[in-house]
């Protein structure tokens, strides 16, 4: 790609030093008799702290020294030169976009101050935004009026890009810089690292941040999409990314947190996240649905979106800035009674729901988090109950027995009965009544009734705080259970706070190396990982693993569980090589300590297989996933969730290697078994069916050959 005249005009003369940059320049010479002359001067810029890093470069701060008048500060992005033509194209495209759009015009884009280079790197100097990026201001949902302000400003920038045949391709809060924070926002679009000029109707390369990618970028199209549209996308991918961003600003949550949920939406066109938008006006909900249209051809353009009625509403907003995270409210002086009334309508059928483990494209197919040796059923750790009548004890103990037998629906009924008996005999706030309420939460959690589980655990925690004190281990157990329920609903920010309080409390009450303390730490690490706070999660797991290894030894089950969790944090951070080493160590250690067919051993092997797949080492991933499938099938049966998830993952591995015949057999089996166990309309069933249809339509000659390598153990 030849650099344009505009780009070349912005090039600065510079000499790059290890600690900064110097620029030769000129300044007026006001000495007597030298009017109109200029004398040479060298500007010295000293390098400061790193502001951030991404796929295509690192950004640091530089300060001009000495600086006359106000201090002069700039941000400098450094991009390593590459012999790879495709990477060089990205760099040239960013230079062109910065030169064209980021001059001080209309305040829509971060201003570019010029660029320079040496033999190894290209440097782009930009205005320094002291307030940072928008992501730092999204700890809680923002009021709807403030979301409107941000959206309108971004749309004006997007329209400017699109009118000039550019597409940004990586819009997200981290690439939106803040000039003024709320309640009167002024934001600018930054980071043109993957922007691109489009001369034709569509583009093809797949770049961006996973949770903000439009479905067409992931190869997901509504039924009936013409073949000409496959693998092509238009500038309206930016509108989808904006929709995800505005949704997150309003809800502090993502509309489609997993591949499963996105795939289901594209196939059915049923906009699912309305439950997350309960505090948003109907106009706002409708506007978001238009931004997030699965069919790019009917998705709003930037110009159309700017004309929408939601953006034209008056600035007054009755909604306060208070966080709108859904909290159960207690009624009157008896918070426990509300849970009893609410629970009477709960159905008794066993229901399974998908659990999202991570937020990358492979993540929805990663193994679910299982027991690591840290986590036991909270019901089994209940304090023995004494001094009660046989009837009051019998129902409670029978419920615990049913839980241990994994008869969760019956356990729920029995524990509901135990709770009501004890509430009538002892009162709502007696510790034994609260023990039954907590155990009822356990039964609900095993049945994936996440909303009801949150309600019950929250009331158990509130009741135990009053009856036993905030630092009591039973109170902390209910708090930890609340964290689990929030995590299962993807309420990661609130879960983080809950787990952190449980972890700190358990450290004080039980000790740093106690299994319950480590269980809360495990949950905290998961909540951090799901918010992309990888470095903090990694550091937490590393500290806990080292402490456990010192206390119990490297071969201890708990130590190995923390080693596995550390590997998961690294893997989620994209540190695949380091994660592979630790997954392998955890698997080998569990193999020796627990046995080859223990569920924890298989869990580490499962993660290792998916890690190799993430590195595109498909053959090795296939070999290991075959072992995982066989182990899960022998341990849990052919139709268990673990077995079917492994079978589905294996289908993806086959499909990626163009082994279409094997993939078709595997996806068909996964679809049939999921249909039988979960139901025909469950999102996991539909996902397997979707893959089966895609594989069946493959035009590859391989799709017609017989899958010999599948026998005998896939039959």
Explain how this protein is built.
- With 715 residues, the protein is of the alpha+beta class.
- Helices cover 49% and strands 10% of the residues.
- The protein is built from 23 helices and eleven strands.
- It has a seven-stranded antiparallel sheet with strand order 1-2-3-4-5-7-6, covered by helices on one side. It has a two-stranded antiparallel ribbon with strand order 8-11.
- Helix 11 packs parallel to helix 13 and helix 22 packs antiparallel against helix 23.
- The longest helix is centred in the first third of the chain and has 20 residues.
- The protein starts with a helix and ends in a 19-residue tail after the last helix.
- The C terminus is likely disordered.
Summarize the structure.
This protein is an alpha+beta fold and 715 residues long. The protein has helices spanning 5-9, 85-101, 144-163, 237-251, 259-268, 282-291, 302-306, 335-343, 390-404, 408-426, 431-446, 450-468, 473-488, 492-510, 515-530, 534-552, 557-572, 576-594, 599-614, 618-636, 641-656, 660-678, 683-696, and strands spanning 15-17, 20-28, 38-54, 57-65, 73-80, 112-117, 121-127, 166-167, 176-180, 186-189, 196-197.
């Amino acid at each position: 790609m030849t650099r344009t005249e505009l780009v070349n005009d912005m090039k600065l003369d510079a000499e790059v030093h290890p600690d900064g940059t110097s620029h030769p320049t000129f300044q007026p010479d006001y000495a007597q008799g030298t009017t109109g002359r200029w004398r040479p001067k060298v500007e010295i810029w000293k390098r400061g702290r790193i502001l951030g890093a991404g796929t295509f470069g690192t950004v640091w701060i530089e300060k001009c020294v000495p600086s006359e008048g106000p201090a002069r500060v700039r941000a400098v992005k450094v991009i390593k030169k590459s012999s790879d033509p495709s990477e060089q194209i990205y760099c040239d495209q960013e230079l062109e976009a910065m030169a064209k759009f980021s001059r001080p015009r209309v305040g829509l884009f971060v201003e570019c101050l010029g660029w320079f280079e040496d033999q190894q790197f290209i440097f782009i100097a930009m205005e320094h935004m002291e307030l940072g990026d928008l992501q730092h201001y999204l700890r809680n949902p923002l009021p709807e009026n403030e979301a409107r302000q941000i959206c309108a400003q971004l749309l004006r920038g997007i329209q400017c890009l699109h009118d000039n045949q550019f597409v940004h391709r990586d819009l997200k809060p981290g690439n939106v810089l803040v000039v003024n924070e709320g309640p009167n926002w002024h934001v600018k679009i930054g980071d043109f690292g993957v922007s691109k000029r489009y001369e034709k109707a569509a583009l093809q390369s797949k770049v961006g941040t996973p949770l903000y990618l439009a479905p067409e970028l992931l190869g997901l199209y509504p039924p009936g999409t013409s073949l000409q549209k496959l693998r092509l996308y238009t500038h309206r991918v930016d509108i989808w990314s904006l929709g995800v961003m505005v949704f997150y600003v309003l809800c502090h949550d993502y509309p489609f947190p997993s591949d499963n949920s996105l795939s289901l939406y594209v196939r059915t066109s049923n906009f699912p996240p309305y439950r997350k938008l309960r505090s948003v006006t109907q106009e706002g909900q409708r506007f978001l649905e238009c931004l997030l249209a699965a069919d790019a051809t009917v998705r709003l353009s930037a110009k159309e979106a700017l004309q929408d009625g939601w953006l034209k509403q008056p600035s007054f907003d009755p909604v306060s800035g208070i966080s709108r995270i859904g909290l159960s409210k207690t009624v009157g002086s008896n918070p426990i009674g509300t849970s009893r009334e609410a629970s009477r309508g709960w159905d008794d059928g066993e229901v399974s729901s998908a659990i999202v483990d991570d937020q990358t494209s492979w993540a929805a197919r990663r193994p679910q988090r299982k027991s690591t040796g840290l986590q036991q059923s909270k019901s089994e750790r209940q304090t023995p109950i004494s001094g009660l009548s046989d009837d009051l004890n019998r129902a409670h103990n029978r419920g615990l027995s049913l839980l241990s037998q994994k008869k969760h629906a019956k356990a729920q009924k029995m524990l509901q009965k135990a709770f009501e008996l004890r509430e009538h005999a002892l009162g709502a706030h007696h510790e034994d009544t609260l023990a039954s309420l907590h155990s009822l939460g356990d039964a609900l959690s095993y049945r994936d009734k996440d909303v009801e589980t949150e309600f019950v655990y929250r009331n158990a925690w509130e009741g135990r705080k009053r009856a036993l004190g905030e630092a009591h281990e039973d109170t902390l157990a209910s708090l930890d259970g609340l964290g689990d329920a929030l995590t299962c609903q993807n309420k990661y920010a609130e879960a983080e706070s809950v787990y952190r309080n449980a972890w700190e409390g358990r450290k004080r009450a039980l000790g740093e190396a106690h299994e319950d303390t480590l269980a809360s730490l495990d949950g905290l690490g998961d909540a951090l990982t799901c918010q992309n706070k990888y470095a903090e999660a990694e550091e937490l797991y590393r500290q806990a693993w080292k402490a456990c290894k010192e206390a119990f030894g490297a071969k201890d089950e708990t130590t190995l569980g923390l080693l596995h969790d550390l590997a998961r944090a690294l893997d989620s951070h994209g540190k695949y090589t380091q994660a592979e080493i630790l997954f392998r160590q955890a698997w080998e250690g569990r193999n020796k300590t627990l046995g080859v067919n223990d569920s924890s051993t298989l869990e580490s092997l499962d993660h290792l297989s998916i890690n190799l797949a993430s590195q595109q080492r498909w053959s090795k991933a296939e070999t290991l996933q075959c072992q995982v499938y066989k182990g899960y099938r022998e341990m849990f049966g052919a139709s268990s969730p673990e077995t079917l998830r492994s079978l589905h993952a294996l289908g993806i591995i086959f499909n990626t290697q163009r082994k279409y015949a094997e993939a078709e057999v595997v996806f068909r089996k996964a679809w049939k078994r999921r249909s039988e166990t979960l139901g025909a309309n469950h999102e996991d069933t539909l996902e397997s069916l979707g893959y089966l249809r895609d594989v069946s339509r493959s035009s590859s000659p391989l799709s017609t050959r017989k899958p010999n390598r599948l026998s005998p153990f896939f039959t």
